[in-house]
Structure to design on (315 residues):
């Protein structure tokens, strides 16, 4: 990190958005986002909270606005495949979106055998009910992306669920599941195509889909961010894979690995995260935005909460 950026991040530690409490609509608080229900629309605020292993851990300066702007970049670049929920950006940390009925499963698309998928495969030989060949190596590329859904837990951990179980339990219809699978793969492949142009691999990601009142399908929440996706560097992948070394990462897997080194996997007390690790996480969010979009991020200290309140008041 440059000296200037480090100073900006240090100064912003006093102005992170850890929580919001605006007196508008009905509020729902997720791990990272605060959502305000305005009836037929929602305001989604991307805070600076960071989560891993389904636990909120701490706050990272500028994280919320970087993620919000990165999602907007991806929504714009995939709207020809499937419409999304964005109406307009109202603040670096917030968007006004169409209200939809969120489909109660998370769609995870994997292009490579790594992370939680690797851990599940190592113990069961499967991921989300999909039987995989014996003897696959960590970080190997699948012949084609695979879809490995999870449940959306209100509390605790999301759990793997197979497509067959989703249909058998009548969570959604077979027809809708097939549409979601088709759109997920097309959007993921578009993401891989754009990432590759910038020397990155979109390794895996998660999507959330919703239905508008007229029954039409849209994609919602976030897209291809450092919170929802894993990115590696394209030019170093093959060499590191052949040597059995960890990939050069541009996502929050850096934080997950640090937590695992402290024997934290989501249960028990959260380890105290030092400032150096917070800097490291911020750096990766900034680098991801600039690498993916090809644009320099304008990093400026600001009282984000006050300016967000002003933007909402003027809506």
């Amino acid at each position: 990190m440059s000296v200037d950026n480090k100073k900006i991040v240090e100064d912003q530690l006093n102005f992170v958005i850890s929580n919001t409490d605006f007196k508008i609509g009905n509020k729902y608080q997720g791990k990272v986002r605060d959502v305000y229900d305005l009836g037929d629309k929602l305001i989604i605020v991307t805070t600076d909270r960071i989560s891993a292993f389904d636990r909120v851990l701490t706050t990272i300066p500028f994280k919320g606005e970087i993620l919000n702007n990165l999602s907007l970049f991806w929504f714009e670049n995939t709207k020809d495949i499937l419409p999304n929920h964005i109406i307009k950006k109202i603040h670096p940390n917030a968007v006004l979106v169409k209200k939809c009925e969120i489909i109660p499963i998370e769609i995870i698309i994997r292009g490579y055998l790594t992370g939680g998928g690797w851990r599940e495969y190592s113990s069961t030989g499967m991921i989300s009910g999909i039987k995989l060949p014996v003897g696959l190596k960590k970080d190997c590329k699948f012949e084609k992306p695979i879809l490995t859904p999870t449940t959306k837990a209100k509390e605790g951990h999301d759990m793997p669920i197979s497509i067959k179980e989703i249909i058998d339990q009548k969570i959604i219809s077979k027809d809708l599941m097939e549409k979601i699978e088709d759109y997920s793969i097309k959007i993921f492949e578009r993401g891989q195509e754009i990432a590759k142009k910038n020397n990155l691999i979109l390794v895996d990601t998660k999507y959330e889909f919703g239905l508008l009142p007229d029954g039409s399908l849209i994609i919602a929440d976030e897209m291809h961010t450092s919170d929802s996706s894993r990115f590696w560097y394209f030019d170093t992948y093959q060499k590191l894979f052949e040597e059995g070394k960890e990939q050069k990462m541009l996502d929050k897997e850096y934080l997950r690995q640090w937590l695992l080194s402290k024997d934290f996997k989501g249960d028990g007390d959260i380890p105290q995260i030092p400032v150096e690790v917070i800097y490291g996480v911020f750096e990766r969010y900034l680098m991801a935005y600039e690498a993916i979009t090809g644009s320099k991020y304008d990093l400026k200290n600001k009282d984000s909460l006050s300016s967000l309140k002003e933007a909402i008041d003027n809506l």
